[in-house]
Amino acid sequence: LPERAANWEEELLTQGLSRRALRVGVAYAGPGSGNDIQRSGTPPIAFTGGIPDPITLPIEELAAASETVLRREGALALEYGGAQGFAGLRDWLAGHWTPIDRTPLTGANFSLTVGSAHALENVCETLLDEDDLVLVESPSFPGSIRAIRSMGCRVEAVYVDQDGLNVDAFEERLRAAEREGRRVKLLYTIPNYHNPTGTTLSLERRHRLLDLCERHNVLIIEDDAYGEIGFEAALPQSLYSLAAGRGVVKIGTFSKTIATGLRTGWIQAAPALINATLATRFDMGLSPFLLRTIAEYASGGRFEAHVEDICALYRRKRGIMLDGLRERCSQLASWQEPQGGFFLWLELADAVDYARLRLYAEEEGVAFGGGPGFFAAGDAGNGAIEPSRFVRLAFSYTAEAEITEGVRRLARALERAAQSE
Amino acid sequence: LPERAANWEEELLTQGLSRRALRVGVAYAGPGSGNDIQRSGTPPIAFTGGIPDPITLPIEELAAASETVLRREGALALEYGGAQGFAGLRDWLAGHWTPIDRTPLTGANFSLTVGSAHALENVCETLLDEDDLVLVESPSFPGSIRAIRSMGCRVEAVYVDQDGLNVDAFEERLRAAEREGRRVKLLYTIPNYHNPTGTTLSLERRHRLLDLCERHNVLIIEDDAYGEIGFEAALPQSLYSLAAGRGVVKIGTFSKTIATGLRTGWIQAAPALINATLATRFDMGLSPFLLRTIAEYASGGRFEAHVEDICALYRRKRGIMLDGLRERCSQLASWQEPQGGFFLWLELADAVDYARLRLYAEEEGVAFGGGPGFFAAGDAGNGAIEPSRFVRLAFSYTAEAEITEGVRRLARALERAAQSE
Predict the structure, then answer these.
(1) Which of B62, B121, B283 sits opposite A282 (nearest CB)?
(2) B residues 367-396 lying closer than 8 A (beta carbon) to A
(3) B290 touches chain A (CB under 8 A)
(4) Pairing of strands B133-138, B333-334
(5) Is B213 helix (H, G, I), strand (E, B) or coil?
(6) Are the C-beta atoms of B53 and B317 separated by less than 8 Å?
(7) Is A181 exposed, middle or buried (0-12, 13-18, 19+ CB in 10 A)?
């Protein structure tokens, strides 16, 4: 018999990859990939991943819920449950979001996915082809940009300022596309407690954005991963809510409110669009055991009480980080107070050299998300933005008692990176 | 403000779907979709889905494992675990498959997926483009054909006979492609206890198949969903094993051995190819809670003992079904004794009218998988095959005590469908 060479896969991988695989290159390994938490050696104080504080993880409650579900529901929890996912959890989502989004929702408006990452992927696979034109924000969550880019569509970026997506710049992009005879098919936006900037899209901008998207027939994907983690006044109504669900697909997740390790998120959309996304997935749905466990845990007001608790915690943690920054870093960086979410976005003073900052931060024992990673979408049309002038600090994961020391280390790294010029 | 029409999504869905979404049409709703088990009204005796007998589901053990994992591992189980999935479960798979596949395997040879359905999808997305030529078996599992077709590649079918894939016909297809100047990129095959026919590819054919695929540079996807459910002599070595992993990707699942509702399967391949599949997924991996629960349950020989138990049960159930068929149906259908798996594939006698059989089966209260659903891949090059001459009977799900009554009902339906000519 002939036999393939021991390095047969080299040929396959150099000549046989799909265009989609070639586009994405290597696997995502940034914040939130599971690679960002160092578990051996002397770990730095990590302001990296958008991950809940481990003390908030409802371990006992989830253990009780999983046991209840298995003992009470047995086979129902351990057999195929369909691609859309357990109806009881979708009904719970409908009940939870109907008053918030002031729109009558039912379980038919939801589909359950492997986190909001899979929700975005599923929507993209349902609607996008190569060469479609998609607008995204810059900066943005790089995992999302990677998924959108993998479809082979043309991705153009619009910048985010202190009130969220700059809608003037968005309108300019729409008009530029129109002049070229091209249609913008889709906008991907994170209007609430934006990742990485922490900004929130103002109500006035939401109205203008919906108006523009309606006139230009642009579908909006509204990524609301962080919207429930609020510290101050209520958020402006969601885009989904303002549009009564027309022309908006919202994606959400339990990753930030309960646990990233549940890997459970959802698509919220008109039922006809939900059905189209279901037709364009092939995984036969998520585990009913997992989904029923989440529904059991979330029921009876437990989820809402939990979210109230964690918001109080993250508000405190944000305050500790802001106090430290004001005390030690105000000459070396500037920032905006986020009204919710997990992140503070620092703009470095001109004196701070970015490469040195990374080096000194490692030496001092503090980790953060480097700005350049969040500008994957490329030029956002405001030439003033230099990615290496920014770092993202997550105040969510690090223990409350360690934040001040982490900021102290960051301050030393900033000082050294400024002095070394 | 202008406002989108209430039926905005109609326009989106008629003019805005991706080519992939347009190809697949509606969602899969066949056996195993979660739609096939009727749970209200007077249920028929169901020989439909390839689903484990509910009495085999290790409910107590999984409840204990999930509790252990959450209490012992806490945050590790509830945080991101990476796209490849919990290393402990991948290591367990390596330990389990190394002796069976007689090939040294490590955790780097595995990636964990949402069942083998997602495994297939992930491999296809990594390797296939529109217009690539893919060969599949006919009949085959329609969910797999649907996923492959969604990539837009040209799918051609090769027929399965009593010894599995007909390798002569496969060779003919390869030569026909060669004459057209086209290369066959990939073969999707179910060599063990084939779905739906129950046949097993002979060792001699495995050697010939590997030889042909090597000479023509065809990658093999070996779907081994049922290989562990064996009743008789050991299976021939896997294609993966015979090829020492070169040019073969194996996909597997816990759906048939533990529970479909775990929605956990895997890709087994060379590490470089595993890495390529990881780069071409966007879901940030499955739930570490779920994967660690499975690893905890499977460890310490529990999985192997469980498989031994279920094989004994399914062997008995197959025997009961065969006894009933021999006693009541031998004039109206013929079949081959499956050596493992969940299915018996009946070829109907000429006298039996298929449409009437479906009608009478419903009246008699028995359900089965209709032949035509398994011929989604189209003409397999053997004109003698008429899809509506076949039905698939799953002996796995229905309670042992009900199988005889189910066959009795089927026999009555067959008799009525034959007499009514």
Answers:
(1) B121
(2) none
(3) yes
(4) unpaired
(5) helix
(6) yes
(7) exposed
Q: Which of B282, B290, B293 to mutate to test the interface with A (most CBs of A within 10 A)?
A: B282
Return the residue in B86, B210, B283, B397 with the most chain A beta carbons within 10 A, the one to mutate for interface testing: B283
The two three-digit tokens of residue A207, written as one number: 């109205």
- CB neighbour list of residue B336: distance below 8 Å, 6 or more residues apart: B162, B197, B198, B199, B345
| Per-residue pLDDT band at B13 (split at 50, 70, 90) | confident
Amino acid at B299: S
Q: What is this model's ipTM?
A: 0.94
Tokens representing B354 are 């298929």
Confidence of residue B16 (pLDDT cuts 50, 70, 90): confident
DSSP B88-119: HHHHHHHHHHHHHHTS---GGGEEEESHHHHH
Q: Could you tell me if A35 and B87 are in contact, meaning their C-beta atoms sit under 8 angstroms apart?
A: no
Q: Do B78 and A67 touch (CB under 8 A)?
A: no
Q: Which of B388, B394, B401, B334 is nearest to B198 (CA)?
A: B394
Residue ranges in chain A whose pLDDT is less than 50: 36-39
- C-alpha separations of A229 from A100, A254, A354, A405, B151 in Å: 14, 11, 30, 24, 39
Q: What is the pLDDT of residues B29-81, one digit of tens each?
A: 555 555 544 445 689 999 999 999 999 999 999 999 999 999 999 999 999 99
pTM: 0.95
Q: Could you tell me the CA-to-CA distances from B409 to A285, A393, B328 in Å, in that order?
A: 33, 67, 10
Reported as a single tens digit per residue, the pLDDT across A97-143 is 999 999 999 999 999 999 999 999 999 999 999 999 999 999 999 99
